[in-house]
Design a protein that fits this description.
Length: 147
């Protein structure tokens, strides 16, 4: 292990708070598209394979997260192009990790494509915890965040 890796500071409370805020915005964006898709198929009873619903939920979660983050950045005086590129470039890895763990959790606990009162908080918790250390690291090492 390099000396830089050994000396990395994981104990900065300010950075943990800021990275938590960034992660929560990402989680909100992902959850809107993801849960909306699953809920649509759950309510409509359209016969569609679970894997297809989960794949569509992941794609829609990524799209809504990018839209939300682009909107937030535009409110911070970024032009559309810069806001969009920042939203994709800085947090896409977080979004993918978040989406995958949320949907894997749903599949493990319910069989997939099911939202109910007890699985949603678990999905949100794993969706938050998965990318949070990565977001902390990116913020601390590069001073890069999306919000």
């Amino acid at each position: 292990m390099s000396s830089e890796a050994l000396n990395f500071n994981w104990n900065c409370k300010h950075t943990w708070k800021k990275s938590a805020k960034n992660t929560l915005w990402c989680l909100l964006g992902c959850a809107i598209g993801d849960f909306g898709t699953i809920l649509f198929f759950q309510i409509s009873n359209i016969p569609f394979p679970v894997i297809a619903i989960m794949t569509l939920a992941i794609i829609n979660g990524l799209i809504t997260s990018i839209i939300l983050e682009t909107f937030i950045l535009m409110r911070q005086n970024f032009n559309f192009s810069k806001a969009f590129n920042t939203a994709i470039g800085m947090s896409f890895i977080s979004m993918i990790g978040m989406e995958l763990t949320m949907n894997i959790t749903d599949v493990i606990l319910t069989g997939g494509a099911v939202l109910n009162w007890w699985v949603v908080p678990i999905m949100l918790t794993v969706g938050f915890l998965t990318p949070w250390p990565y977001n902390y690291w990116r913020l601390k090492k590069f001073n890069i965040s999306c919000h």
